[in-house]
Amino acid sequence: MSESPILTLPHSSDPSEAETKFASLAFPNSRDEEWRFTSLRSLWNQSFSFMEGDSNTAASLIADLDLSETIGRRIVFVNGMMDASLSDLSGLPDGVTVKPIRESTVKIGQADSFENDYFASLNTAFFQDGVAIHASKNIVSSTPIGIYHLVTNPTALVLPRILYTGEFFSEISLIEVFAGVDDAVYLHVPFTEVILKDEARLHHFRVQKEGNAGLHINRSSSVLGRASDLQSFTISVGARLFRHDNRAAMDGEGGHATIDGLVLVHENQISDTHSILDHRKPNCTSHQLHKCIVDGMGTSVFNGKIFVRQIAQKTDSYQANHNMQLSHHGMVYTKPQLEIFADDVKCSHGATIGQIDDEQLFYLKSRGLTELQTRYLLTFGFAAQIVNALPEGSLRDRLTREVDTFTRKRFEVETV
Amino acid sequence: MLVIQNLHASVEGVDILRGIDLEINAGEVHAIMGPNGSGKSTLAKVIAGHPAYEVTQGDILFEGQSVLEMDPDERARLGLFLAFQYPVEIPGVTNAMMLRQAYNGIRRDQGLEELDPLEFDDYLTEKCELVEMDASLVDRNVNEGFSGGEKKRNEILQMAVLNPKMALLDETDSGLDIDALKVVSNGINKIRGNDKAVLLVTHYQRILNYITPDFVHVLVKGRIVKSGGKELALQLEAEGYDTIMDAASV
Questions:
Q1: pTM
Q2: How far apart are CA B169 and CA B233, in angstroms?
């Protein structure tokens, strides 16, 4: 029994720097600080390799997701390769281009350093395919572009790479969706980099709705220029194991990053969010509200680091992680972490783990709602609070239904 | 409609209600007055079934049936309604969503067809007009970010929607300015009827200028020490609670 997965990777007689780097890294285990609470045991001894995907299955996954606002603006990857027949860029806003990543003049690996990260290095060395999305100066478009990462086969190793660059004063919206077939053990390791130039804005939504046996380890790295604004939201619903390393570095004065998240886990699911908000310059602000609902034997891990560098005076940072635990068997690990080297800053952080509030319970029951209806409503409300902050559209509607379905199932409340 | 017999109740081992007897018939409005800490709010909460209070003696009968063993939701579906002194905020749940589920639950119990969201919306709009509430408040999360007056008005809206037989109003007048008080009182008066009863808990006589009670009871240290008609409220307002407390030597 080997304590790592068995990956079949292309062999090169003249390995690149990234390949050499990856070859030097050991597979992480629970002795690594970054993996203390998230066991990678479900990857041990499993074989994964690049596999050709099935477009028909992928098409039905897209239909199930039902995100009508991305019609005409869809970039579809199946098992890590862009699928031209399912992608549709006919409605792309003027000034926004999508190119194969290997043809892009913008280099990957600029948004973050990840030298010793096994999975980020794996993607960097061996990514199969990817796109570079570029929004020109002053381009503003509110209709989102959908990036679908779909997996249709068991044992597939899936390594897509996305690079987004927003030029000065640009503002667009990206919805990244990760989905796959149920009952298939596959390994999905996507890496998305975001470069925001001065005054650029990006709305970045991620929907993780992988198949129930899927293994997903995600890296999102953003670097923010002067007075730029990143609005990032991630919902984690599917997968047997989900790990999200989400990092935003404020590298110019006056930048802002929001990285909100919602995690719904049940059965034996593990969902782990490791985030870094790195304040490198003065007068930047950041906001992070991360909520988790844990049922069954589910596990939720949150590790949120906020760095305030010595030069980053007047930083204003808010971080909260709220967990609702519905079963006695679920596990919640939370670690909000502040590291402040500047002296004139405003930072708040906190975490709560709780059950349902007794006064709220009594209030709703006194209106005639049964115990189960009440618990359903309060749990729904806990999660809906975060979804309601999204802009109106098919994404918000879809996620509201997702939250509703999840919470109804917990309390066996029928649809009214 | 509601009969309270020798009711004793405590919270965390402290006796709050120490032998209350009260009978409220259909069509009547009873006001419970008393100084701070007399047990007025406790009485309302105990009738509604708040789990923090333990009934140690006595009984509460609603339409002839003891409710002591019933959960708050069962009592509510029988037709008891508590308007809270401090309405609770429910983040992420809209008023409309909560009320539709609660109302449909009651209809289900009565063997009536449930209303779909559109039908319910019409019903809700009509009730908003009745209690002069801005209809946009129904799409907001329950009590979240509401002003004090809006919260109280929202309680009255909920009462209008659920249409209970017996309303327990726990200091619904407190914290209201005179205009809001008039609106809330109007709402209550419109819902009053011969087949309904109201128990109004209040610290001040002011609301009784707008809602005329049939009976006024003075609660001191967990007991009703004096009962009378609406003139008793005026006497209390003029003389304060001290005279009555002295007379009752409590």
A1: 0.91
A2: 17
Residue A405 tokens read as 């379905």
Beta strands in A309-401 (DSSP E): 316-325, 331-340, 346-354
**A-contacting residues of B 58-77, CB under 8 Å?**
71-73, 75-77
Q: CB distance from B114 to chain A under 8 Å?
A: yes
Interface contact flag, B76 A366, Cβ < 8 Å: yes
Q: Is the pLDDT of residue A9 over 80?
A: yes
Q: How far A143 CA lies from chain B's nearest CA (Å)?
A: 26
Per the structure block, which two tokens stand in for A125? 């060395």
Tokens (6 digits) for A273 = 């969010």
A190, A247, A289 from A259: Cα distances, Å: 18, 9, 7
**Mutate which of A289, A363, A400, A404 to disrupt the B interface (most B C-beta within 10 Å)?**
A363
> Is residue A112 over pLDDT 90?
no
- A320-332: average pLDDT: 95
d(CA A148, CA A58): 9
- CA triplet B149, B152, B154: central angle to 5 degrees? 105
What tens digit of pLDDT does each residue of B175-201 get? 888 888 898 898 888 878 889 999 999
CA distances to A166, A413, B22, B243 from B247, rounded to whole Å, are 80, 55, 21, 6
How many other C-beta atoms can be found within 10 angstroms of the C-beta atom of residue A314? 16
Q: Which helix (H) or strand (E) holds A73?
A: none
**Average pLDDT score, chain A:** 95
Report the chain A residue with the minimal C-alpha distance to residue B80: A366
Instruction: Kindly tell me the sign of the dihedral angle through the C-alpha atoms of A28, A33, A35, A38.
Output: positive
Amino acid identity at B173 = D
Amino acid B242: pLDDT: 82
User: What band does A273 get if pLDDT is binned at 50, 70 and 90?
Assistant: very high
Give the chain B residue whose CA is nearest to the CA of A371: B73
| Low-confidence residues of chain B: pLDDT under 70 | 248-250
- Determine how β-strand A299-308 pairs with β-strand A270-279: parallel
Instruction: Give the model confidence (pLDDT) of A177-208 as tens digits.
Output: 999 999 999 999 999 999 999 999 999 999 99
Instruction: Please give the full DSSP string across A173-232, using - where no structure is assigned.
Output: EEEEEEEE-TT---EE--EEEEEE-TT-EEEEEEEEE--TT-EEEEEEEEEE-TT-EEEE
